[in-house]
Amino acid sequence: MPLIAPSILSADFARLADQVRAAEAAGADWIHVDVMDGRFVPNITMGFVVVEALRPVTRLPLDVHLMIVEPERYVERFVAAGADVVTVHVEATAHVHRTLQLIRSAGARAGLAVNPATPLDWFEDVLGELDLALLMSVNPGFGGQRFIPRSLERLERLAALRDRVNPEARIEVDGGVGPGNAAELVRRGADVLVAGSAVFGGDGTVAENLSALRDAAQA
Ligand SMILES: O=C(CO)[C@@H](O)[C@H](O)COP(=O)(O)O
Ligand SMILES: [Fe+2]
After folding, report:
1. pLDDT digits (tens, 9 = 90+) for 28-42
2. Which of 78, 121, 129, 180 is the most exposed place for a label (fewest CB within 10 A)?
């Protein structure tokens, strides 16, 4: 059964705690927190204080996606703030292996993300060191973008690599995920679906949106 990780990037920040509680009550599995620094991506979002503020609000794992340069400088502070999963971008850290070890030794699960144009070969030598492989299916920086179709084929290749090198690692797909493509993503190997606008945007309530996504993912 795939896990669903609503991304709070599309939540109403004036009511963030309520939105997270609504997602948890509706059966979300993880809460996805997009951290952006205005350098790795052309947008600035949130940092330690938001993770810290959300920690007592939910029992769900906080899945922190760092879209920042030199994430190794900050991973320990995110873990101390309450992150359960910390994902860094392969394009943003010079010593990928060391950074993954740093995340684990700080006490969190380690994730590695790749942008849509980054070769999947990057995963080959580090899959054994990570708990989560994050495949970006949009260019990182913003919610509400359209899913890049080529990501489907990349997902299949990543799943084959994962099965061969480290079957324990989960594959997370992030960007443009919704009821229209959830089943296909699961079929091709996704274990965790991140969804921002499909959960917190649109016309339905968070509960309605999440259940539509869950139904689609399990179809
Ligand atoms: O990391 C990112 C964007 O860079 C994502 O986690 C987005 O927040 C996903 O938003 P939707 O595409 O689901 O609206
Ligand atoms: Fe994300």
Report:
1. 999 999 999 999 999
2. 121
Q: Using CB atoms within 10 A of its CB, is residue 87 exposed (0-12), middle (13-18) or buried (19+)?
A: buried
The string over 146-162, giving b where at least 16 C-beta atoms fall within 10 Å of a residue's C-beta and e elsewhere, is ebbeebbebbeebbebb
Whether pLDDT at 136 is above 80: yes
Ligand 1 site residues, Cβ closer than 6 angstroms? 7, 9-10, 32, 34, 65, 67, 138, 140-141, 143-145, 174-177, 194-198
Class of the CATH-defined domain 3-218: alpha beta
Ligand 1 pocket test target in 13, 19, 34, 193 with most atoms within 8 Å of CB? 34
- Say if strands 3-6 and 192-195 run parallel, antiparallel, or are unpaired: parallel
ipTM value of the model? Answer: 0.99
pLDDT above 90: residue 203: no
